[in-house]
Amino acid sequence: MEAIIEVSELRKRFGASVALDGMTFTAGPGLVTAFVGPNGAGKSTTMRVILGLDRPDAGTALVGGRRYVTLDRPLTHLGALIDPGALQPGRSGRNHLLWLAHSQGLGARRVDEVLDLTGLRPVARRQANGYSLGMRQRLGIAAALLGDPPMLMLDEPFNGLDPEGFVWMRGLLRSLADEGRAVLVSSHLMSELQDIAGHVVVVGAGRVVQAARTTDLTARFGSLEAAYLELTRGLGVLS
Ligand SMILES: Nc1ncnc2c1ncn2[C@@H]1O[C@H](COP(=O)(O)OP(=O)(O)OP(=O)(O)O)[C@@H](O)[C@H]1O
Question: Where are the domains of the chain?
Answer without folding.
Answer: 85-148
